[in-house]
Write a structure and sequence with these properties.
Elements lengths: L5 E7 L3 E8 L4 E2 L4 E4 L6 H17 L9 E5 L3 E2 L2 E2 L14 H9 L3 E5 H12 L8 E7 L3 E7 L2 E3 L8 E2 L2 E2 H5 L1 H6 L4 H19 L3 E5 L18 E4 L6 H18 L1
Parallel strand pairs: 1-5, 5-8, 9-14, 14-15
Antiparallel strand pairs: 1-2, 2-3, 2-4, 6-7, 9-10, 10-11, 12-13
Helix pairs in contact: 1-2, 3-7
Bound molecules: beta-D-glucopyranose (BGC).
The site of beta-D-glucopyranose has 16 residues, from helix 3.
């Protein structure tokens, strides 16, 4: 039996920075994850410093990664390593050379992508979207709404469907889980907004499958059965760990490319 391929996945979020060594063939954590709260304000320099501390802790506590590159998910549009939007993060991230900053701080090569894109990658490889061909949309309902679009398993990056217009507003400000909490909406009232949101996604993309992730997806029985769509809509399977696992898979794949 060959040794497992192990890579570090790092998930930078608004409230926590989490990482773990991941078995990228099995699609599961190879050791316990490490989490440190995101520094207040979330400025790039401070976040990068904490991120490097999280990675150092993960690497020191073993097992030793076999892939040198670290994969990182971040809640913004990422173009060639540069973060170009800041919907729910500090505005200093706009135009920040985030990948290079992380690479310097972590002292390992880093690859960087949108948080929903990496979480979606994990779902499509190992979770609710495995073996599904055609068009698959993964959405994450949290502080914002993240989206990831796959065509026959291949990612179309940075789709940002959380910012479609809904009821004349930015969709995530009406339909994210944070809107449910902020406005103290009942599951039924929140589901009415989700109905309008997912109907629009369905109309625009005609997907074969919609996957719903984010922390609230563990309570999917409270809202998914209330939705009436022509498309199959299912909860994510990897939940909290999807971001870490997907980031590690991306790192392993970029490493392979480097070697060829
Ligand atoms: C951001 C996306 C991100 C999503 C989930 C949105 O506000 O624009 O880039 O994927 O939140 O974190």
């Amino acid at each position: 039996m060959s040794a497992a391929r192990l890579a570090v996945g790092l998930d930078i979020g608004g409230s926590g920075i989490k990482a773990a060594v991941v078995d990228v063939e099995a699609g599961e954590l190879a050791a316990e994850r490490v989490r440190i709260p995101t520094p207040e304000g979330g400025k790039p320099d401070e976040v990068v410093l904490v991120a490097s501390a999280v990675v150092a802790k993960v690497v020191l506590s073993g097992p030793t990664p076999t892939v040198d590159t670290v994969g990182v998910g971040f809640p913004a549009v990422v173009h060639h390593g540069v973060t170009t939007t800041a919907a729910n993060v500090h505005e200093d991230w706009i135009g920040a050379p985030a990948r290079d900053m992380l690479t310097a701080a972590v002292e390992r090569p880093c690859v960087l992508a949108n948080d929903a894109d990496v979480a979606g990658l994990a779902e499509v490889r190992f979770g609710a979207g495995r073996d599904v061909s055609g068009v698959v949309v993964v959405t994450t309902l949290g502080t914002g709404i993240g989206s990831a679009l796959f065509v026959d398993g291949v990612l179309v990056p940075n789709t940002e469907f959380g910012h479609l217009e809904l009821d004349g507003e930015d969709a995530e400000s009406r339909a994210a889980d944070s809107a449910r909490e902020r406005e103290d909406l009942s599951w039924k009232d929140w589901a009415k907004r989700l109905q309008r949101y997912y109907s629009q996604l369905e109309l625009l993309l005609q997907p074969d499958l919609i996957i719903v992730g984010g922390g609230v997806s563990k309570k999917h029985d409270k809202f998914l059965p209330l939705l009436e769509l022509g498309t199959t809509i299912v909860p994510a399977e990897l939940r909290n760990e999807a971001g870490i696992i997907g980031a590690a898979v991306m790192a392993a794949e970029s490493d392979t490319k480097d070697q060829t």
